[in-house]
Structure formats: structure tokens, C-alpha cells
Amino acid sequence: MTAVSETIAPAKPMPQRRTNLYFVWCGVLGDPVARVAAAIIILLVLMAIFAPWIAPFPPNEANPALRLMPPGTEGHLLGLDNQGRDILSRIIHGSQLTLISGILPVILGAAISIPLGLIGAWYPRLGEVIMRVMDVLFAFPMALLAIMLAALMGPGLVNMMIALVITLVPYNTRVVYAAARQERELAYVEASRAMATPDLKILFVEMLPNVVAASIVYSCTIVGAVVITAAGLSFLGLGVQPPIAEWGIMTSEGRSFVFVAPHIAAIPGLAITLLVMAFNLLGDSLRDSLDPKTRLTLVKHRPGPGGG
Amino acid sequence: MEMRLLAYRMTSRKRAGFGTAAATALALVLGGVATAPAFAAENTIVFAVESDFSRLDPHASRTWNTFKVLRHIFESFVEEDLTKGPDVAPEIVPALAEKWDVSQDGKSYTFHLRKDVKFHDGTPWNAEAAKFNLDRMTKKDFEFHQKLSPGLMGWMWQDLDNYEVVDEYTFKINLKQPNSEFLRRLTSGGSGAPRMISPTAVKTFGNDAIEQHPVGTGPFKFAERVVGEKLVIARNDDYWDPARKPKVDQIVLRGIPEVATRELALVSGEVDVIGTPSPDSLEFLKAQGVEILSGKSPMFYLMWINMKDPHFKDVRVRKAMCMAINRDDMAKYQRKGLATPAYGVLNPEGPGYDPAYKDCEYDPEGAKKLLAEAGYPDGFETRMDWTFGAGADVNTKGDAEWLQRDFEKVGIKASIEMFDNNTFWDMMSNGMREGTGLTSASWGDSTFAWLDQVVPTTALPPNCCNSGYYDNAKLDQLLAEARGAASKEGMDAKLHEVRDVIAGDMAFTSYYTASSVYAVRPDVKGFVLSPRHWFDLTTISKQ
Amino acid sequence: MSILSFAGTRLLYAIPVLLGVTVIVFMALQLVPGDIALTLLGRMATQEQLVALRQELGLDRSLVVQYLGWLASLLQGDIGHSISQQLPVTQILMPKIGNSLILMAGSLFFVLTFGFILSVLSAPRFRQLTDKLVVGLTLVLASLPVFWLGIVLLYFFGFKWKLFPISGMYNMVNPGGFGQLLHHMILPAIATASSSIAVVTRVTRSRMIDVLGQPYILAARARGLSRHKIVLRHAVRNTLPTFANIGGLQIGYLFGSVIFTEIIFNWPGVGLLLFDAILQRDVPVIQGCVLIVALVFVLGNLMSDVIVHALDPKQR
After folding, report:
1. What residues pair up with B387 in beta bridges, in sequence order?
2. B341: β partners
3. Which residues are B164's β-sheet partners?
4. Per-residue confidence band for A1, with pLDDT thresholds at 50, 70 and 90
5. CA dihedral over B264, B265, B266, B270, signed as positive or negative
6. What is the pLDDT of residues A183-195, one digit of tens each?
7. Beta strand B230-235 with B339-341: parallel, antiparallel or unpaired?
8. Chain C, 258-287: which have a CB under 8 Å from a chain A CB?
9. How far apart are CA B508 and CA A151, in angstroms?
10. pLDDT mean by block of 10 residues, chain B; 543 residues
11. Would you call B76 helix, strand, or coil by DSSP?
């Protein structure tokens, strides 16, 4: 929820066509920090996929005799929680839902925002209406809107995701709308119109790829914020339900034992921080690579097809 | 020890001083608003309990934590003497009635009322006031009838026939059948409380707003309440019993549901007493110089089973559920030994309790077999509605997850939904939700009044709290006979029948019983536990 | 355009947004599974009460009519009745808003102070060690989940080192006093402020870097003005509108964070109320909290717009 404000500003008009994704690609690969961030994320994704094989214990297996034991307890690298469950195993298994609840709403939000923004940019009257509705949604602080929706629909993973998607739509729509408005003024669109290409074809075949880049980059910059919000909803008891492992709910459960066993809350919180930091770094790098002011310096150092 | 404690306090004060200095610096930066002189309330006890309080109208209130306060604002005809500690069975002593007569057949109670008593608002206490209160609790067409009362207080007035004002200071209650627990129940509370509220206050503030202006006769007066923050009661200087005049000026009660926050508030000196610290924190608290008090309690965890649920309709499924619970380990690990396994519906410290009794044995393999017989060889899915709890509860979510794991071992996959305590009981009054198979809360008492609230058909929804729709009229009869039994042995025998019928149907079970535990700062004196869910706060003081 | 007419225009623009907010909060009620009257009255409601409320809400009529009725009572200050406390929601909400605003003000103070200091420290030293440290710090701050940071602060500053109290706004025994309030406020305010500090610093820093690259700065340098003077005289002044703008935008995010810090530090504000209301399934209170926060948010943004307008000579 923090990276949002600075990225609302649309990408500037592009000097070169069809190279947005190229710049993105070069920008990320050319930036060592972004490479590290990408590596962390890939590692975490792999960890989530192979969780059942790499976790030393099933996530809900409890050994009550070892409740609250600190990190370093034999056989339990990160210690045990208040139920006597292995924290390392729960972190590994918990990465699945933590990642899903951070990424899936962003993807779904983008899927809704892109057509909304495109159509809005194409039909100015309709666009005006859509953007005014978005303005209203902007009147709610992001976390608050998600909390209200999730609270009213009732706790649960699916409801939490729906709430997050609704919350994200206005932000992404604004980005797509701004990008599409600029795109619309460009020569190739004029040309297509002159050739009487159907509106929908211009929108979803010709303009879409160029607008999608802006949306993707924006989405990447907010994944970190969404991970935090999703974990926050679970922290409030609105998201993932016990005993399912997820980092937000694990932090929340550790809160009751923070004086006798601080590691229970500390470890999942650290994990969230690391994940969010990786997403934020990657998002920043992606954004820089799309920003005409900085993109050239990023690409300059790397020879590549069409680059220079 | 004393020295170390002193050293610890000094360093902590010095450090706090640094923090204050930083804060003051910030104040200057912010523009320096003049610091208002803090009002110093000497001789105040801050008491943190496990949940915020329910309504302060005794006839509509709920939860033991609320009753812990209400029993000091409002009084009944008689009281229990709770000043003798947790190991002494409390005696019934005169309160608003100086003395009483019981008729030969055990059906009529004549109370000779105390003459020099006034409510906190000056209204005199007399038989008319008593009648007003009974009307309010029981008479449906009375102008000031509290509508929630009949649903909450069946346990008290189910045998009531009528009552009459004999003269200004004599009040007579006639029962339809004898009830050997009648006086004991008059002292109880938690689900409504048969206590006396000022008729003038009810008439002035109205039936709903009265709960914001509770006026009784007790040793403490209501001073202030900020919902969700604090409830303040102050000493009643005109209290009729000089021996029970409170030692402190006021008591500030706070509901702090999060146990770690409660503990830290105690350690940092922001509160003086806390209820139910986490069993895992006791060593840590002792090391911080805090005193741990614990004692016997009638509390145990009762489990309701939804008899309307398609899975739990089958008695074999209910029995399998009972057999799946590893009660021994649960008591050992969830409460670190401050608990014992519980079976069946009779609680320790209550009538008829038999420590050797078991309604089922822990046997996960047998449970699986029973489930297979019932047509669920692969188990089934259900839901547990659970409460964060109130008085004496700690980490109930952990208990729920423990049970969830035990059930999963036999194939019952249960999801958990947690509720705030008041919401939970609102829900329970309406019966368990569709799709919810199991639910649980702490209950049990020194009388079996609570069984009268949980088991009989009169407690079926929309009354509280036969929430699992256990419809067995035979138990109404058995419970009435138990109340009417002339001897303790007779009552115990009847209660054993009740217990065995319920175990046969497996309509309820229980899993563990926990001691009551309080943590107290060393400068607090005179805090005495009792073998009840509540205590007497008139003796507490601070050095 | 004068400040007043600017403010007036903005206020006019805000009205449709505020109306939209009420529509959303009203429509959100349709998300609640089950009977709306039962949801609003709670499970202890009697049959008569339910019938009366259904009548009042006009549940059989169209949503538009229902909304207009709801809006009419809203405009009279009636947001509904709390289920758990049996009180009008406004009565419960009002003192809590004040408490939250106090905490917000404290957080905003930290956001602006640290945001400003960190920007002034880093921007003139672009790509030097100080700058890199500041950028690294903002990255960490922006990635910390506020609920976790709150617990960490509470653990170290409240419990280990005992520097600050950890619960509530005032001492329970001797409540009162501004100093006491500040003492209680510091930890939750810092936790609330952390991620916003990062955002404000980043935006202000990059704006200041832009400003420092402008020709007139180079000219000033050529005239021999010291770096100190350039930064303070020119760079800060020209960065101020951006700073005020981004600072104002933080109000919303602070509200999002305040919910969590209030829970962790037992601060009796809207966040704690909202949390309790969620646990209690107290829908009228949830609605009221969200409505009020959105209202404050819109008005806060409006105010910050006006301030930015006043600060920025170009916009005038």
C-alpha cells in the first residue's frame, strides 16, 4: 500500500514503439539488485511448489511436549510454535498461500482493470463515468476497503481475495486508462481508424500489448503492498483460517506468546519482510526500466538486439 | 529477592524517566501544550480481566467477568461468604435479608428484609423494591419487564409459583416444588443475576438505558464506563455493613482479551491484578516479581454437539467424536498441568462429581471403526464455532486447534470459526448454525443451575443454552427431581442419572477442567480467591 | 485563483465523491450473507424488532429507495445502532475518532519530520554513502508489515528496555496529562509512520534531485553559494509542494496502518473499535467506522490539496 502513490503517474510517452517489454527485460537483467530480488522470489516460489517435499514435517503435525521451544531445538531449526508445530515447516508450507494471496489478486485485478481502462480511454463519456467510480473507490484507504469487504463477506481465503481484487481495481485501472489515453493519440491508432478497423480490434489487438506493459510494471510494484495487506487481513482473522499455515496468521498467533517465545512471531514477520522487499526491489527496477529518464542508462551498458 | 526486586524497579523507573524525557522533548517540538496536572487517584486498584463486560443490567447481563463486577454493585437476599479462600466451601450469609424462614415442605421462603439499606440513589430497600425486581425478571406484562431475563434466568425462576409483599420488610417467595439449591442459586450469576436494582433508577432511565446507570445497594457504586476501555467502581461510603466496607477508593476494571498485552500491562505496572495469565508465562511472571495465585474452580470445558447436523445425528458419530479426544495430553500441555481431564457433564466442585467417571475412553482406532459403521469410513467435514472466551479462558483457539488435530486423526475434518464472547452467546441463544457440528465454552458451577440452562427442553432455542437441539423431556423430569431431592445423596443420585442419560445419547461431553489463576503485583494485599468463578473485592488493598 | 475559491471548487468536487462513498458503504451491506435485518439487529433481536426494522428499511422496496431512506437518516447523523453495545453508532464512534486522529497526528508528525530530514540528507549527496544508506532504509521501512513492526517495537522498547508504556493512551491509575499521552503515543506512532516515511522520503528525494539538477541551481553554484545555502534556500523551497502533496496523500495509508497499531498497542481508536466490531460481527459499527474514515480521508486530502496549492506559486 506504500508504493502506490508514486507510481500512479502514468508512464511517459514512449519515443520508440513496441519496445516497452524489451526495456523491461533489459532493465531487470542489467540491474544486479533486481537480479538478487528476482532470485529470492524464484527461490520462494520454488519453495512453495516443492513444500511437501522439502519441509521436514507436515505443517500441522504437533509435538506438544516441545511447545514454544526456541530456534535451534534439535530437529527443529527455527523452533516450534505454541502448538508444538515445526516453524520451519510452517514457513515453507505457508509460503504457498502467502504468495498466492499476494499475487493472484494483483493478476485478477489487472485482468479486470485492463479492459476497463482501455474501453474507458476509447469512449470518453464512458471513461469519465468509469473514472468517477474509481475516484469514489479511491476515497477509501486501501487496507480499510479490503477490511470492510472481507469483514462483511465473512472470514475466509476466497472472500479475502475477492476483497483484495476489488480494492486493487481502481489503482490499476487508473494506470491503464492513462497509458491508453496517450496511446490513443499516436499515429498507428490514427492509421487504423482511418482504415476503418473495428474499435474492438484496435483496442484489444493493437493497443493492448502496449498498454499491458504499464499495467504489468505497475502490478509488480504493488505486489509487495498486497502481500502485506493480505497478511494483515489474515492477522485480523479475516483471511486464512487455522490451522492452515500462512505467514500473516502465524505472526498473529505468535503475538500471544511474544514474551515467552518471541521467535514465533518474529520469524514469519521476517519472512514477510524479505518477500515484500524482494518484490519492491523488482518493482522499482521494472519501473525505472520503463521510465524514459532512467531507462537509457539502464540499457546503455548492455549490448542487445535493437538496443544501443 | 526483595533487594533484587527493588533494584529492578529502580532501573525500570529510571528508564521510564528517559522515555518521558523524550516524550517531553517531543511535546516541546510539537508546540508545547501546557501539561495538565494529573489527577492522582490514591488507593486505586487496576484489575485486568479476560474480556470486556456485557450489559450492566443484572437481569440482562452475561459472563462471569461481568458478574465479578455486578456482585459488588448489586446484592441479593443472601450472599456467599467468599473471604475464606479457595479451599473452603462458602457459607450462605444474610445480605439484603437479615434472616429467612423456609416452610416445612421446602416450597416457601420468607425473607425478613434489612431495614437500614438504601440504594446508591437514596431509594429505600423494602419489600416493594423486591417485588419490583421480581416483576422485572419474571412478569412478562410488567411495564419494566426485562425481555432478556426469562431466556437468561430460567435456572433461577423455573420453579417459581408466586411472590408477595407481606409487609414493608417481609417478602415471601413460593415455589411450585422444593429446590434445595434455591438460596445458593440466589447468590449466583453469570447468565443474568437475581440481584436487586433500584426501582427509581429503572423508572428514570428506562429499561434499556439503565444498564448505563446501574444503581444497586452493594459495597461499590458504579462510577464510569467507557465501553471497550474501562469500567470504574468506587467505594460506597454509606454501605450498610461496616465490616465489608471496601479497603480501596476505587477499582478500575479493564477487559484486555490479548493475554500477552495483559501480562505486559501487569509487569510494567499499568495494572495491579490480571486474570488468567498464559500457563506458559507463569515462570516468566514469577521472575518479574509477580505473585501467582491459583485455586480450585468449578470451571470445565463443555462441548455441545449439533443433534440436527446430518453427520452428528447418528449417536455412533457422536461417540466416535468423544473417543477421539486425547484429554490427558490436552490437560497436560494446554494448561501445563493446571488442569485435569474432564468427562461427562458433571464438573468438579459441583454436586454429584465423581473423579473416576468417564463417558468414553480415548480410543482413536475404535472411533474410526465407529465412524465406518456409521457410514463414514473416510470421515466427513464439519465446522466448529468457537469463542475467544471470557473469564478463566486462555488460548481457546489453541484448544480448538488441538481438537481439530485429534478429530482429523479419526477422519473428521473440522474448520474453526472464532467469535467474540458476547457474539458467541448471542449465537448460542439461537441454536447452533447449520453446518456447525461442534461448539464449546467454559461452564460448570458450584450448583447445577447451569445444567438447568443447558440440558432441559425449556432451554431449547430461542432460549439459552440447549444450543445443540438436544430434545429429551426425560431430563426435565430428572433435573426437577434432583432439585427437589431432600438429601445430598438423593440429589447426587439423580444427577448421576442425568449424567448417564446424556452420556448414553452422547449429547454433550467435556474435555478438561482448569484451576483459576490470577497474577498479582506484590504491593497488592488481601486479594482472596474463592472456589467460585467470582470473588469478593472488598478485602483487596494496595500498600 | 484565490485560495478560497480553489478550496470551494475542491469542496464541490468532493461532494459527488462523498455521495459515492455512501453508496458503496450501503451496497457493501448486500455482501453480508443472510437476512439484513438480523444482521443489523444481532441475534438477540426479538421478532417484533425484526419486523419493525424491515419495515423501516423497506427491504421489500427497490435498492434505490432503500438507499435514499438510509442516506436521509445518515444525513441526520444516524448511522445505525450497535448490536453489541446497544448504543447509537455515532455515540460510540465519536470519541474513538478523536483518539485515532491524535495518533494519526503523531504519526504524520514523524512522517513529515523524518521524510524531510532524510530527503535533505540524501538528495544533495546523490549516490554517495549517505544517500545509499537512506535509500536502503526506505526500502526496509517500505517492506515492514506494520503489525509485525508494532510487535517488534513493543517487545524491545516496551518489554525489554521498558522505555515506553505499551497499552492505551493514558495511565490507568492516574490518567491525564499531555506528557503522558505523548509517552504512550510514541511507539504506535512510529510503527504507523514507518512505511509512509519511506514513501515520502523517496518521492521528496527524487524531486529534490531533479531540482538540484536545474540550471538555476547550477547558476547559483557558479555564483559561489555554498551547498548548504543552495539546499536550504532553493532546493527545499522548490521541493516543498511535492513534499506537502505526498505528505497529504499519506493520510489514507496512515489510516490503514493505524488499524493494526491500535490493536497491538490497545489504543482506543477507530481501528480497535473496528477490530472488536469484526470479532463481534457488529455490522452497523463496521459500516460506521469505514464511512467515517473515508469521510476523514476525503476531507484530509482536500485539505492537503489546498495546502499544496497555497505553497506552490506555479499553481497559483
Report:
1. B419
2. B512
3. B172
4. very low
5. positive
6. 888 888 888 888 8
7. unpaired
8. 259-260, 263-264, 274-275, 277-279, 283, 286-287
9. 32
10. 35 40 42 36 86 90 92 97 93 96 95 96 97 96 91 90 96 95 94 95 93 95 89 95 94 90 88 94 93 93 96 96 96 90 94 95 96 95 92 90 95 91 83 94 93 91 88 95 92 96 96 95 94 95 89
11. coil
Q: Which of A15-19, A33-37, A99-103 has the lowest mean pLDDT?
A: A15-19
- The residue written with cell numbers 499544496 in the block is C308
β-pairing, B92-94 vs B300-305, is unpaired
With CA atoms as reference, report the closest residue to C21 among C305, C292, C314.
C292
Chain B interface includes C155 (CB < 8 A): no
User: Given B26, B34, B429, which is nearest C44 (Cβ)?
Assistant: B429
* A262 CB within 8 Å of a chain B CB: no
In one-letter notation, the amino acid at residue B248 is: V
Report the residue of chain C nearest B387, measured CA to CA.
C279
> Are the CB atoms for A23 and A295 separated by under 8 Å?
yes
CA distance B520 to B517: 10
d(CA B131, CA B146): 14
Grid cell locating C146: 506494520
Q: At A104, which amino acid appears? A: L
Residues of C in contact with B39 (CB under 8 A): 174-176
Is C294's CB within 8 Å of A266's CB? no
Which one of A61, A63, A83, A234 would you mutate to disrupt binding with B, by most B Cβ within 10 Å of its Cβ?
Answer: A83
Dist CA C69 CA A19 (whole Å): 54
Instruction: Give the separation between CA B129 and CA A192, rounded to whole angstroms.
Output: 90
Farthest-apart Cα atoms in chain A, separation: 77
Distance from CA of B67 to the nearest CA of C (A): 17
pLDDT less than 70: residues of chain C: 1, 42-45, 313-316
| CB neighbour class for B152 (10 Å; exposed up to 12, middle 13-18, buried from 19) | buried
Burial of residue C263 (number of CB atoms within 10 Å: 0-12, 13-18, 19+): buried
Q: Which of B518, B395, B476, B526 is nearest to B155 (CA)?
A: B476
pLDDT of residue B37: 34
Residue A287 confidence (pLDDT) = 80
The grid coordinates of residue B480 equal 426437577
Distance of alpha carbon C45 from alpha carbon B330, whole angstroms: 37
Asked whether residue A9 carries a pLDDT value surpassing 70, the answer given is no
Q: How far apart are CA B14 and CA B20, in angstroms?
A: 10
| Rg for chain A, CA atoms, rounded | 22
Q: For the segment A64-118, what is each residue's pLDDT rounded down to a tens digit?
A: 999 999 999 989 999 999 999 999 999 999 999 999 999 999 999 999 999 999 9
* CB A289 within 8 Å of CB A223: no
The answer to whether A98 touches A276, Cβ cutoff 8 Å, is no
Mean pLDDT of A214-225: 87
> In this structure, are residues B237 and B481 in contact, taking their beta carbons and an 8 Å threshold?
no
Predicted local distance difference test score (pLDDT) of residue A303: 36
Q: Is the pTM of this model over 0.80?
A: yes
* Count of CB atoms situated within 10 Å of the CB of C315: 12
The yes-or-no verdict on residue A307 having pLDDT over 70 is no
Percent helix, strand, coil in chain A, to 5, is 75, 0, 25
Residue B255 has φ and ψ, to the nearest 5°, of: -95, 115
Per DSSP, B122 falls in state S
Q: How far apart are CA B273 and CA C38, in angstroms?
A: 39
Vertex A48 angle, CA A42 and A54, to 5°: 105
Residues 6+ apart with CB under 8 A from A86: A55, A56, A57, A61, A63, A76, A78, A80
B165 DSSP β-pair partners: B171
pLDDT of the residue at B148: 84
Grid cell of C8 as nine digits: 470551494
